[in-house]
Amino acid sequence: MPRSSVTSGKSSPRPAPRLRRAYYECRYGQLHLHNAIPAGGGFDELTAIVCIPASGQTGRAFQSLLAELGHDRSIYAPDLPGTGESDPAGATPPAEAALAALQDFLDTMRLREVDVVAWGDGGVVARQLASTRPRQVRRIVMLAEAGAGGARPSQPLLSLSADEAAAAGRNARIAEFLT
To answer: For the domain 15-177, what is the CATH superfamily, name and number?
Structure first.
């Protein structure tokens, strides 16, 4: 739920989230992340969001989502192993490396519960993450998921087509689903 302070009957604008980049250690070396942190920080944040890009994309694909939803929650959008500024995973298949790196990230950050937003074939990794970490993954949003086969996760799922994922109002739909 968006928070605003009221002074003299007027609503003041929410402070912009802090948009940052960082590196975290994972079994393949360094994992580069784009992230948003609420300006006030603190313990009243909503559930953190982990964004999984499509293969060949970086966390930069989620910039507008970070800026819009980062007011109330921490959001992490990694460059998966071998993309962007993250170290490569060697001979490990990309989906397997992405899953392992994300598991390492969740463990390092000690995140108890997350919502996951996946773009394209990153949805496959989101489903694997949900099946291996059912107590940690609360909800999943799939944006223009390619290759939607496979078992449905037990977590609540919002799936947006390519047109819906590109449409104005997408971030508001995601925010409403994740609250």
So the answer is: Alpha/Beta hydrolase fold, catalytic domain (3.40.50.1820)
